[in-house]
Amino acid sequence: MYKAKVNVMGMVLMVSTAAIAEIEIPFRPDDVTVKFTGKVSALIYNSGSQTSLIDNGSRAGVILERSITEDIDALFRGEWAFNITDSDSHDQFNDKHKISNNTPSGKPFKTRLGYISFRSKKFGTLSIGKQWSAYSDVTGFTDQFNVFGGEGSGTYNFNSDGGASGTGRAENSVIHRIDLGKVKIAVQAQFKEGEELVEDPIASGYSIKYQNGYGASVIYQPLKALRFGVAHNRANYDIQNASNLQFDSDKQVTTAISTSVSLGQFTFAYLYSINENHEVDNSGTIFDGRGQEIYAGYQASQRAKYYVGFNKLTPKDLAYHDAYEKQYYIVGASYNPHKKVTFYAEGKIDNSSYSDGSKADNAMGAGVTYTF
Fold first, then answer.
1. How far apart are CA 65 and CA 73, in angstroms?
2. CA–CA separation, 134 vs 216, rounded Å?
3. Which domains does the chain have, with CATH numbers?
4. 155 Cβ contact list (under 8 Å, min separation 6)
5. Between β-strands 59-67 and 32-47, what pairing exists: parallel, antiparallel or unpaired?
6. Are residues 236 and 250 in contact, defined by beta-carbon separation less than 8 angstroms?
7. Is the confidence at residue 261, as pLDDT, over 80?
8. What span is annotated as the signal peptide, if there is one (predicted)?
9. Nearest Cα residue to 370 out of 58, 133, 48, 44
10. Could you read off the pLDDT of 15-25 as tens digits, one per residue?
């Protein structure tokens, strides 16, 4: 058995001021795969009269994989977000690149993913920890933008990464995924016991105590270029320290159906979601919602891509629908001069309205991502 010393600085790309610990770990080069992953991304963001330079989901991670039998592989994955600018990160969570407030005050890093898994050709993959949920397997069809999006699917609810509810990067979760060829199935159990503060500038001072949950998804792919998916998730919870808060049960439930088709250089995806007590508006009201997302992309060349999209989230209550609604269009383009470098620009034409009667501003962002 060989031994290698590894310097740990919070993980890769951590600031030089981080404490350095030296750990001695067993290492077998013949059967262990070690892979470092991550990206650095920043963009210039404009909304209304404000323009700022912000981080756009920078992160670093490591993947360790080892065969433990002829049929079973064990894997550990850890991924941590960090902020390369002085301002807060972009407050969207769309696709697998977005995080919100990824470096909270006093915390230079934030855990995005942390799980262990066991993969078998016969029995599928069993994974334990903070990981992408069964629900997101389906909602990811339309979650393909660089700056905006991801607000009509119910994946990233309550101004979070969907970790507590189990719809995004699910916390305290156990997921079993099975690949049956044309059919892919995921079953999820979440053992979540704890309170989550609802981050809202107007209706602060209450929290949600989660009490476990479950989810599942099925994806049917009859052709390489055609996919259909359905996902369902439920999280049990209790509202703590709330006054004048509107909700009608002790559970969050959301269901999504989605389809994706690719024809040559064109890709189109559509999603529709229904949820109960799963979304919160700018006044702190929890509501039942209906959502839609559209993504349409054109791969003009190996390096250039153009795309458009649409996001919509409306309350089920028609009377309340007149006061609050999220609805916007997305227009964007990306260019890859190198396989590890992406330049991108996106604009958002926003028709959203808030519960206080105000309207949302249009916005745009342009940035660059380096993947390592």
1. 7
2. 6
3. 2-371 (2.40.160.10)
4. 93, 133, 135, 136, 139, 143, 162, 167, 168
5. antiparallel
6. yes
7. yes
8. 1-21
9. 58
10. 333 333 334 44
